[in-house]
């Protein structure tokens, strides 16, 4: 396993990786198909003890109790033989494990790649703030890799094995360029953490990435308003909008809530949900060129404010 300049460590063929379920339980057949994809990358795969469990409390949407899910995650993170921890799927439950992890013990473990998306946003935020490590946000073992979609698998392999990834969007809501550390994740999870001990730090000087799935426009408006009123967008350098599958037409919502912030905004980046997903590195330095519709690896040196902002384009 090697270091990837500001991003999470990259993998090498032969590395041992763990698949854990901090949220929903995994379905056995889909778990095996997803793990087979990881093995096709030349990785040795082990599965967390409780990945297929159901919570004893009767909450069938949780993969075991909060303590059990946390124990699987912590054991994998602290095992020096494990080079990466993959989350099986999202759904709900990741935020519940935050109070059950021994963060001091985890901080003493050597950093490694941590990968997941959607509900796993709660853990991305906590890993950044409590462990100070960058993380990998992209398609998960059961929810996406099991589908065998070639494009998504190819993109993930590039990201895992150390290629500097450039992702392209489909629209510019406000032109300009900016650079900074990439932060954010799933919109619903970011807002759900506000007011808790695990609340996300403001995106000041950073590039904010957000995405969501199956949320009506008024709900997206409400969550963006909550983040705005909480000061999360205070001093943000730029904004990247991922996928919004099942969310309807959000053009007016984004124009009303985000464009007035006055920073470059790139839309239509294929990260979050749906086919053809790319993988991005939260906590890594990135450069955003909203005019060229590109988000790429940064050169470091801190944040840069928007430059030559253009007019809105379709």
UniProtKB/TrEMBL annotation:
Keyword field: Carboxypeptidase, Hydrolase, Protease, Serine protease
Domain LD-carboxypeptidase N-terminal: 17-137
Ranges where the record places region Disordered: 293-314
Hydrolase found in the keyword field: yes
GO annotation (BP), single: proteolysis
This protein's record includes keyword Zinc-finger: no
GO molecular function, one term: serine-type peptidase activity
Active site as annotated: 118 (nucleophile), 211 (charge relay system), 273 (charge relay system)
Domain called LD-carboxypeptidase C-terminal: residue spans: 179-288
SUPFAM superfamilies given in the database record: Class I glutamine amidotransferase-like, LD-carboxypeptidase A C-terminal domain-like
Stated family: Belongs to the peptidase S66 family.
Protein name, entry field: Carboxypeptidase
């Amino acid at each position: 396993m090697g270091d990837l300049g500001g991003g999470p460590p990259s993998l090498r063929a032969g590395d041992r990786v763990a698949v854990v379920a901090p949220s929903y339980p995994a379905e056995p057949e889909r778990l095996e198909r997803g793990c087979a994809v990881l093995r096709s990358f030349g990785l040795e795969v082990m599965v967390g003890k409780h990945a297929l469990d159901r919570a004893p409390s009767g909450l069938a949407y949780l993969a075991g109790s909060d303590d059990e899910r946390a124990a699987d995650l912590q054991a994998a993170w602290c095992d020096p033989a494990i080079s990466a921890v993959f989350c099986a799927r999202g759904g709900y439950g990741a935020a519940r494990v935050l109070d059950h992890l021994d963060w001091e013990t985890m901080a003493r473990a050597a950093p490694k790649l941590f990968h997941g998306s959607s509900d796993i946003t709660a853990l991305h935020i906590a890993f950044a703030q409590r462990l100070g490590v960058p993380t990998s946000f992209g398609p998960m073992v059961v929810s996406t890799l099991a589908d065998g979609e070639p494009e998504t698998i190819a993109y993930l392999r590039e990201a895992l094995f150390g290629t500097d990834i450039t992702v392209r969007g489909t629209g510019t809501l406000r032109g300009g360029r900016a650079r900074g550390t990439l932060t954010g994740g799933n919109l619903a999870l970011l807002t759900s953490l506000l007011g808790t001990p695990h609340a996300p730090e403001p995106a000041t000087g950073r590039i904010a990435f957000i995405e969501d799935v199956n949320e009506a426009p008024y709900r997206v408006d409400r969550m963006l308003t909550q983040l705005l009123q909480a000061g999360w967008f205070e001093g943000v350098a730029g904004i990247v909008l991922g996928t919004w599958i099942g969310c309807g037409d959000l053009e007016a919502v984004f124009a009303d809530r985000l464009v007035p912030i006055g920073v470059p905004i790139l839309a239509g980046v294929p990260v979050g949900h749906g086919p053809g997903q790319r993988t991005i590195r939260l906590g890594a330095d990135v450069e955003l060129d909203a005019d060229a519709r590109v988000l790429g690896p940064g050169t470091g040196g801190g944040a840069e404010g928007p430059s030559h902002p253009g007019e809105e384009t379709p």
